[in-house]
């Protein structure tokens, strides 16, 4: 859903380290 679209958008614009931080933050919520 929206979360996957957000991850795809993030993935297009950030490096892998930044993606990992975003994923960790999503999992913590």
Characterization of the model:
This protein starts with a helix and ends with a helix. It has helices at 2-13, 16-28. The protein is mostly helical and 29 residues long. It is built from 2 helices and no strands. The model has no long low-confidence stretch (mean pLDDT 79). The longest helix has 13 residues, at 16-28. It has one domain (1-29). The protein is flat and about 20 Å long.
Any key phrases for this structure?
single chain, 29 residues, mainly alpha, 2 helices, 86% helix, flat
Helix proportion range? over 70%
Unreliable stretches covering 5 or more consecutive residues: none
What's the N-to-C terminus distance? 17 Å
- Which structural class do the helices and strands define? mainly alpha
Number of strands: 0
The rounded Rg comes to: 9 Å
- The structural domain count equals 1
Largest beta-sheet characterization: none
Q: What's the mean pLDDT score?
A: 79
Question: What general outline do the C-alpha atoms trace?
Answer: flat
What is the string of SSEs from the N terminus onward?
A: HH
Strand content: under 5%
Number of helices: 2
């Amino acid at each position: 859903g929206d979360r996957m679209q957000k991850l795809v958008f993030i993935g297009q614009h950030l490096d892998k380290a930044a993606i990992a931080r975003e994923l960790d933050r999503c999992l913590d919520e």
